[in-house]
């Protein structure tokens, strides 16, 4: 296998290197890639979409359709993870651990038995239970709101600076993941339950596709935000900018929810009882 | 360590009970609702971040801050009402320059160690335990992090009771514990 | 000044090599973690330096900030692993 | 040549196809078999209704779908096809009756399946008869192969499995492996697959290529059981006798021969074969098969296997007739399709009737059976006369024409082959008849309880035997059709 | 002004170098955390301070906010870095890694 | 684009990639893969692809490392190669 | 309205996928109807598009209103109009047919399953309809990713491993494709297929274009499991749940073949593929090996589904070989076989689905006595099998005809021989199955104590779609002429003679 | 020689991306551990991203965010001043795809581990063969 691998690698590499001979030099300003299609984006993006960040303009408008599917890819990954891993806890052979909050005693309940009746005094704990670390917990607690705000800022300012729905969404998701790691998975699930999360996943992409469909419904081509001008009460160029913004919000929501979903499934192996 | 963990958690429970009862029995006690404080802190951060002050972006900021506040109000301030915030901030800010100075010193020390040719002879790492008098979570954490940042010491473990385990790199670093820093933090967080 | 920044950046790269040595050859995983954490902290500075070289710092600051936040998360995750799975060597054969 | 467009050929094909769902769904055996009769009658009626038109020299054409220029699924009813269609559709009626007697008499399982696939097989046969081009012919040829598989392996035991494999191996293997490429090559050469009276390959390729194509086609239609590829036919005799009777005396083997004839006349054309001098080759192959088949038949003990080898030999008469490339010879070959069909089916019916009545399969066990089953054995005698080619049976007519043809073509060896073969035929049929009737009563192997098979078995074989005789005297429709065909292909 | 910036930058670089060298040289995981935790933090403080100062060359509101953001990053690093270090150290303790004491072999 | 830096980081990237693959410990691989992402992020920003860098920072450095660690947590660290 | 068909075709299923996902959490019973509605409307749109294409030539659609080289454009011509109809119909029929088995296997995760299902179809439709090289990549990833998820849900233990192998191979394939597009982009500066092909002629001598072509082809071949790169396919399709395998097996490889054709015909124009570089004969040789090896490997399989998967490998060889013969007949055969093979594979995999539904297995032992137990299912299987063998009037014959014709025209007799060989092997393969089902009596283990001959046919909801497909095989076969004349003849560019 | 040197200097970026890609490909083919293969896969994908971003870079160009003042009259933007944004857009998508693939692949790896208690391909195959 190793030898075969090496052979394949050398052959492929040889082919690829052979091809580089006909490439324009690296970063050559007159290369076809820089002169054929892209100049229009750079020169016209402000005029046509009122978005200075050309990448965002291209991402969400000129090639917005790609981005819709990119978000769908993420969504599909979330659904696939769920489909693959999620197990209802009742199904597997299960040993639940409960800790009596006052005495710190731990009781072990094998599968089939009923959980303690007065659950207020008992708390479900992880199998590898470690007391939550004070420092990490506190610092994360303080940091999370700021991380979230920053994430929202990234989504909102995708027009003017790097960033946008995807990056913001990831950071937003990461903030919830931090919560799950620094406290435990259950407390993050209390804030954002599985169902809510799943609905947000779909809702995010729906916002994106729905914006496109709205344009369609108003009589223009799919994702042609210009037609939304009456809705936003502004001129078509600004309408494009706003359309991009709506789309970015959708992306953000979907990405956030999916990241959380994948994390929850992967780190708890689909049981949703204890995470990393 | 187990026994300590149990104690910790007992205390944790007690505290949360207290806070629950407090919030239940005395909803109207002084101070500002934590969510409002959170909102304003966040909004000031937003101002710094955004750098745009037109209506559209400010609205976005308000919305964002509201969303974050709704989601994580109890994260920033576990109690529903914040009291004495302003004073705490001022005291804390006054603590920071001193801390920075200490950190600078500590860094010089470690720098010296790491470049010293016979470094292996100079260092003598050991884990030190001591009991701190600090009580509040926040002050404990501040103290722990300050220790980590300052002379040749790293907080290994801190319990809710204020039991500290500190890894100190040499004799000199060990001597300074808990030392002046604890007092200053106690002052900064109003525990004295 | 740009030249200076460039050299500073190159020097930082050099330092990163040193940290990466720990990352790659560190005897335990935690040593690797330290090395990688150190690389991360240099990266934040490098990002801002690059921003200054491009004269567009305002654009790079956001990345640096996101970076600082997420680097922290990665380290946290790795350390959580050990908090839950006791035994550094147990699984290694 | 005039052509008329009419949907009748398609209907003739579809009528049995349409009846299969009814057969599948009906619960009562009586209803099922009644429908079989209805379908058979309808098919025969449709075929016959076309006869007057054909006899006027007009051809009926119907295109179902054109998939390539020159290669469509298209029906064209001409004299040859009509001849074949009349034979097979009329015999289906008879066989249906016989099947009822046979299947019920032996209490066979899965009768529904049996009747369904029978109907399908007949569809395919008519389809072959009416096909206007090689593609359609191939289509129905393959359909027939697969439709007869469940019939051949009806007993579903290990022997059936072996025979079924052999059957498929020969039939499908050759059709996919030889005919299909030959067809594609032919299409590639000429751009059409449509049979024409003078062949469409004229001038399309060199002699080696043409010879190759010819070999591919002749051996590719393995249903014609030309010698190296004949082994499936004896093996297929494990099937219930009505299947052997209709399919392996009439439908399947005749489809093979019919296809060969069609290819020789419609694809290559007599002129091309003449000019490339391929006739002797065909004749040689056919002669070898005739003689080998007859010789092997001599040594058979099981009656149905004997009949199978006899069939192999007889089929090649038809090929031989065309291979002579002379009008008389071709006429003889074409008539032989009908003559042999009526004769051989009678023989099979008889074998089946004996099996139903006594359970005996081997010739050696049939001593004295003529006393117990006089009607059956009389019919057997008549049919064997027809196969041997003796008057007063139809077989005489076809052999006569064949002989004339060989004279016409100045092929004396062929004449010898014909004579030798007739002699061999007599040599293996006559002892059976003799021992059945003229052995002493003490040698008879049958108790007095044995009597004729059920009426459903006996009546059909009487009818076919009678027809065999009648055909010598009134060969009209078949002779007329054959000469029309010959006229068309030779242009004389 | 430039001088101050350069000075801080160089200081920061020195700290960073110290950190890297320390990470390489110290004998065990716990002692390696000292340079990693402190020197890197200090180094980034100094360097980012210098850079934010440099950024104020052309004083505009935007630039000031950018500098503020850099300071925010520093603050963030100051909050998170010791926490991360603590997390690592805690992990080491729980993983059962004994600290190096004087006289042991390097590891 | 700043080619000196670019070259330096590229070298580092290759080294890290090789390292990540040759470490006989999956957690180590995961962590080094995080470092690989940092360096990639730097590379993108050096080449001026800020948005890509941002995405790589958030995805590569943050989330995907966490995913890796989570997966290793749920499976095993052991690896033979 | 009708000018929006191209985008509605893709976005209606897309939007409904999200709705399904939502309703999976709120009301599970809605999932199936929404999915059916989505795919039915997709079928409607695709049929509408095809008829529009036939009447009006090419249909263009600008997404976001941007003109093509800058924005993404959809382009429906004869080639993909046909493929679209096939894809949407196959998906719809399979959806309806597998309703029961899905409900049994995925009762808890119905929403997720249907979401992935519809997304998969969306991906395939998008791949087919798009005129933008990069957009194709994204959609390809959607189809692959959902495919991985669907495959890994198989009941058998080995499904996840098979799926993971598919992930590796699929990712390499998709990345190679992406890389090839990158090579094209670096020399042309464009991503729009039409635009690229307009720029390319001046660059035919460029090494970059040549290697871009090779890389793209290798990537696409990986995805379609062309012989030496097929290793992932048999396991992945065998261990997938039956509802997924009967969706993915007919469609995925075919759509990838379509992508190959699209690259060959539209992006790198026949001039380049058949004239500027001289590799077509060797590729056909590869196809010969693929066909033969697929057939031989199928002989070794002891499991119905696995056998069928190897047949797919061989069929891919047919199509690649046909496309690379470099003449009109071969190309027509490849396109026609693409359509036919989708239907044939659907038919036999639906049968396997029915068998699994009743017998809980698909190894050869499970098939004993099946003709008595499930006569109708096996009847349909026979039709499908005959079509794969290539017996007229089923459609398989006609495409094989064109392929043979193309092979003979090109003088590539090895290809002809390989086709015939594989047909014969198919006869052996299928009649082995028939023999098992026909001669052997069912084992007691599966019989559940009921007597021989008792019929335990699949439910009607599975049989009706199955027969729809089986009859469709014949109908498509009969209408081959119409399809070729009205669509495929025009889909093959005039440059190919 | 000088030609070769200049060739290297102008194209080294492409060469290194190939190196990186081959490292990833090698890991995917030759490594035995499933997670290692996933890492290889990611390296492979990033290599392609590197390639695309290299296409986009432009000498003398700045990052593709148009410098503009708030509401000021838009001045003429020259394409040569800014780096080509299109590859960046494409690569954003590619990164997203890679993280999505990563998620699914890891989920699969976990599932496999639960069944076979191993991530080594040969051990798993041995277990399958035993059965």
Question: How would you summarize this macromolecular structure in one to three sentences?
Answer:
Chain B is mainly alpha-helical and 192 residues long. Chain B has helices spanning 2-25, 34-50, 55-76, 85-115, 119-122, 137-149, 171-175, 179-188; strands spanning 32-33, 81-82, 126-131, 153-158, 163-168. Chain B is elongated.
| Percent of residues in beta strands of chain B | 5-15%
Q: How many structural domains can be distinguished in the coordinates of chain B?
A: 2
Distance between the termini of chain A: 35 Å
Secondary-structure class of chain A: mainly alpha
Could you list the spans of chain A in which at least 5 consecutive residues all have pLDDT below 50? none
Helix amount of chain A, in percent? 55-70%
Q: For the report, how would you describe the main beta sheet of chain A?
A: 3 strands, antiparallel
Helix content percent band of chain B? 55-70%
What does it look like?
The complex is a heterooctamer. Chain A is 63% helix and 5% strand. Chain A is mainly α. Chain A has 2 domains: 49-89 and 132-267, no CATH class; 93-129. Chain A starts with a helix and ends in a 9-residue tail after the last helix. In chain B, helix 6 (137-149) packs antiparallel against helix 8. Mean pLDDT of chain B is 74; it is low at 14-28. Chain B is mainly alpha-helical. The two termini of chain B are 30 Å apart. Chain B folds into 2 domains: 2-82, no CATH class; 91-188, no CATH class. Chain F has one domain. In chain F, helix 1 (3-22) packs antiparallel against helix 2 (26-46) and helix 2 (26-46) packs antiparallel against helix 3. The mean pLDDT of chain F is 86.
What topology does this entry show?
The structure holds 8 protein chains of 8 kinds.
Chain D: E1 3-5, H1 8-25, H2 29-55, E2 59-68, E3 71-77, H3 79-106, H4 111-130, H5 134-152, H6 158-190, H7 207-220, H8 232-235, H9 241-268, H10 270-276, H11 279-298, H12 303-323, H13 327-358, H14 369-372, H15 374-388, H16 394-408, H17 412-438, H18 455-473, H19 476-490
Parallel strand pairs in D: 1-2
Antiparallel strand pairs in D: 2-3
Chain G: H1 5-26, H2 31-56, E1 59-62, E2 73-76, H3 78-97, H4 99-105, H5 110-129, H6 133-152, H7 159-188, H8 193-199, H9 207-224, H10 233-239, H11 242-267, H12 270-276, H13 280-300, H14 304-324, H15 328-359, H16 370-373, H17 375-389, H18 395-410, H19 413-439, H20 444-447, H21 460-478, H22 480-491
Antiparallel strand pairs in G: 1-2
Helix pairs in contact in G: 1-2, 1-5, 2-3, 2-5, 3-5, 3-11, 3-15, 3-21, 5-6, 5-11, 6-7, 6-11, 7-9, 7-10, 9-11, 10-14, 11-14, 11-15, 13-14, 13-19, 14-15, 14-18, 14-19, 15-17, 15-18, 15-21, 15-22, 17-19, 17-21, 18-19, 18-21
Chain H: H1 2-30, H2 34-56, H3 86-116, H4 121-130
Helix pairs in contact in H: 1-2, 2-3
Task: Output the keywords.
heterooctamer; G: 497 residues; mainly alpha; 2% strand; globular; H: 131 residues; Helix Hairpins
